[in-house]
Amino acid sequence: MTHVRSRPISEFMTEAPQSIGQEQTIASAEQLMRQLDVRHLPVLHGGRLVGILSQRDVQLIHTLKDADPARVLVEEAMSQAPYRVAPTEPLGRVASEMATNKYGAALVMDGSRLVGVFTTVDALKILAEELSDA
């Protein structure tokens, strides 16, 4: 696994991930997540990354007494400071940071442009592959 840890995150990320606008509703985000079978959506405003919405954020809205997912906006539930990395960042460093801080996803940014997403599920796939080769 040593050789894998130094390879760039761009080799393992999901390229051109689906995103959602901050002005969309939680209900529409939830529908998109189900349709794409994903647990994280980068949130954009005017083409610029402004946050990330997780499945946990969506579930939290459902637990709030007076919150209607059809009326609550993504910007009200998203995390505004997502973990961002460059495409050249080594996998080992990204995985370590995600584990230490309990991040569910890393957004891969080329400058100000979102180019990919790397999630804990992606990390587990790499681990499973490496362990099966052992």
Describe this structure in words.
It is globular, with a radius of gyration of 16 Å. A four-stranded mixed beta sheet has the order 1-7-6-5. The protein has a three-stranded mixed beta sheet with strand order 2-3-4. It has 134 residues and is α/β, with parallel strands linked by helices. The longest helix is centred in the C-terminal third of the chain and has 14 residues, at 120-133. It has one domain (2-133): CBS-domain (Roll), CATH 3.10.580.10. The chain has six helices and seven strands, in the order αββαββααβαββα. Strand 6 (105-110) and strand 7 (113-119) form a beta hairpin. The chain has helices at residues 2-5, 26-36, 55-63, 74-77, 91-101, 120-133, and strands spanning 14-15, 20-21, 40-45, 48-54, 84-85, 105-110, 113-119.
**Biggest sheet overview:** 4 strands, mixed
| Distance between the first and last residues' Cα | 9 Å
The residue fraction in helices comes out at 25-40%
Radius of gyration: 16 Å
What amount of the residues lies in strands? 15-25%
The top level CATH class name: Alpha Beta
What are the secondary-structure elements, in order, as H or E?
HEEHEEHHEHEEH
Describe this structure in a few short sentences.
The protein has helices at about 1-5, 25-35, 55-65, 75, 90-100, 120-134; strands at about 15, 20, 40-45, 50-55, 85, 105-110, 115-120.
Descriptive labels:
134 residues, alpha/beta, CBS-domain, 4-stranded mixed beta sheet, 3-stranded mixed beta sheet, 7 strands, 40% helix, 24% strand
